[in-house]
């Protein structure tokens, strides 16, 4: 049985990039193996400094994930910090991590390029992520393209550890990233990658009015209403493609080319389709939210299951490294 694992940071409300890049594929995989999905609160500490926001976001992200179809009967869903073994393994891995490997990582490099002073957490971020993955002997890691490099670091560290400590039998399983090409990078309202840090997101459970406002704010060119428009370069079409049927996409593309309709009309069509697509999830979210203890109880049960697996791996790692 394959082990599937992924994580999401509680840095704000999950958005279309998170959903199509990771949550949806992860939900689809939950019946195809033994799945572990977690809320990466240790990782979020690199940016979230408001303790109440951390608590609220953690529950919020878990609730959103459950509302979208994550089934706690099939997948183990937990909070990363409920399994502190992750940080113990991260330390052990960090002792064999070459500094240049981390200096090469995009998130760190971008931070430094912007002239900001990185803290150690941001620098060591990929090592903690490697620990998250390796501690569950994960085979498959469904992620968006921005996490590809981190999974590569994980594989490199697994190799180093296997070379050093796995002479008789490998200490760690070699994980594989699973990245769906059509949704590897979902774009945001401004045409860049959709990201909470760019403030260009479409949150999954935004209320109707602000959601409409966001969709209406999608950046477009100044082609006049009557002129034909190029669907290939349109953020409206790119987002519509995420959830509209092939026939509806074709129709929108044809209407783009025909001219005679302004971008506002297309944005309205995008909004209507989006609102309908998430309707069942919205209803489910309302139902789940009505029981205030539900999310906590799911996270608690998930933590117990995850911790049992992580503790076993750590016994193996402590023995292999000579800590025991
Ligand atoms: P995070 O919280 O930034 O994002 C969660 C998932 O959503 C994907 N994603 C996107 N996919 C396509 N298009 C986009 N615009 C887009 N924006 C976000 C991300 O690729 C990710 O899969 N470091 C991770 C969390 C993490 C993790 C792990 C993941 C911690 N430990 C171990 C896998 C395995 C992160 O920051 O995700």
Instruction: Please list the strands of the largest sheet in the order they lie side by side.
Output: 1-2-3
Relative strand content: 5-15%
Domain count: the total is: 2
pLDDT average, as an integer?
97
Radius of gyration: 21 Å
CATH homologous superfamily of the largest domain, by name?
Answer: HUPs
Q: What structural class do you assign from the helix and strand content?
A: mainly alpha
State the CATH architecture of the largest domain. 3-Layer(aba) Sandwich
| Ligand identities | tryptophanyl-5'AMP
Low-confidence stretches: none
> What distance separates the N and C termini?
30 Å
At the fold tier of CATH, the topology name of the largest domain is Rossmann fold
How many helices does DSSP assign? 14
Give the proportion of residues in helices. Answer: 40-55%
Note the run of SSEs as H and E: EHEHHEHHHHEHEHHHHHH
For the sheet with most strands, the description reads: 3 strands, parallel
Could you give the count of β-strands? 5
> Which of globular, elongated, flat, extended, rod-shaped describes the shape?
globular
Per CATH, the class of the largest domain reads Alpha Beta
